[in-house]
Amino acid sequence: MKDECIYTTDVALDKDGYPRIKWKKKLWRLNRLIYTFANGDIPEGKVIGHFCNNKGCINANHLYLTTFEENCSHAARDGLYFTGHHNKHIEKANVDWLNISKMYHEQGYSQTSIGKIYSITQNRVSELIKKHKQDYEDYINDR
Ligand SMILES: [Zn+2]
Q: How many Å lie between the centroid of ligand 1 and the Cα of residue 51?
């Protein structure tokens, strides 16, 4: 499913919540490495943004080239999602609780590392998981 976020559980996260990996003797943010494989070298001074706003996501379709400044202004966040011209991704906010629940219940992420990935507090992660416990169980039963 090309539009779902992809996470890795085998890779340590750096202090900013990005998965990191060593490749050709260099330490890479996994999303930069994936982008490079998919699209070629990243020009100097450019950074990789996430359409889906999930820092830990390594789905090449969710990555785009931007500048640090742009990335910050695009990342005007209201809890979990982009505002402004990333409107089409707001709908995705509704499924974020599902991603978060999956990461917690199925993929073995701690609430703290989920918080880092989504740039939210561990309390908020815990809240979301609790709030959507029933939804998540329904989802499991429907699957
Ligand atoms: Zn994604």
A: 7
Q: Find the helix or strand (DSSP H, E) in which 23 lies.
A: strand 20-23
pLDDT at 76: 47
Q: How far does residue 63's CA lie from ligand 1's centre (Å)?
A: 8
Q: How far is the CA of 82 from the centre of ligand 1 (A)?
A: 13
Q: Do the Cβ atoms of 128 and 111 come closer than 8 Å?
A: no
CA atoms of 142 and 136, how far apart (whole Å): 10
**Residue 30 is inside which H or E element, if any?**
helix 30-39
- Of 9, 4, 6, the closest CA to residue 108 belongs to 9
CA 98, chain centre distance (Å):
13
CA of 62 to the centre of ligand 1 (A): 5
Q: How many CB atoms lie within 10 A of CB 87?
A: 10
Q: Is the Cβ–Cβ distance between 102 and 114 less than 8 Å?
A: no
pLDDT tens by residue, 57-99: 899 999 999 887 777 655 544 334 443 444 444 444 444 788 8
CA 132–ligand 1 middle distance (angstroms): 20
In angstroms, what is the span from residue 45 Cα to ligand 1's centroid?
22
